Model the fold of this input.
Amino acid sequence: MWPWEHVAFGYLLYSAYTRVRHGESPEATSTVAMATAAVLPDVIDKPLAWEFDVFATGSALGHSVFVAAPLLVGVVALSRNADRSAAADGFAVGYASHLLGDLLPASVRSGALVADRLLWPLGSAPPDGHVSLGAGFDHYFAEYLASIVTLDPTPYVAVQAATLLATVALWTADGTPPLPDAIEAARTRGRRLFGD
Done:
């Protein structure tokens, strides 16, 4: 998945979670926490693999359930003491959604559960080969773009498009968090800097 797809998938799950658990739409701070966490495993692993050659694959430390589980338990536990449970819940759902978002497509494509990519250091995804961060991005983005512009999109591309459309519709119905807060903050800042 691409970063925007991870954020979209995470938002679908997080909005459903907040509606079921709290009976309301996500709020701004927790939505930012969710979006940050939804891309964090790739922010950790891709540069370490592609740029610094620390790992053979872009799915290692940040994608490992052995790292994610204690990280998320710690974030949620610490947040309870700081009265930041909504943001911690957003972070936890976002991070978990990233792992699930990588697991589902790989498993569907292979026809079997492909959990080894989440079991680093006991298991791992196939090696990416040593490429720079830019070359890795270029390679995968070219494949992605080619799959989108084809006149015969794969079912996977159709599901991606449907997920993005559903997310935009849900995000709009939820009031586009955190956009209104960001706009108001920019207006307030502008008034302070430039007057009314």
Notes: The mean pLDDT is 90. The chain has one domain: 3-194. The radius of gyration is 18 Å. Helices lie at 3-22, 28-51, 65-81, 85-110, 133-149, 155-173, 179-194.
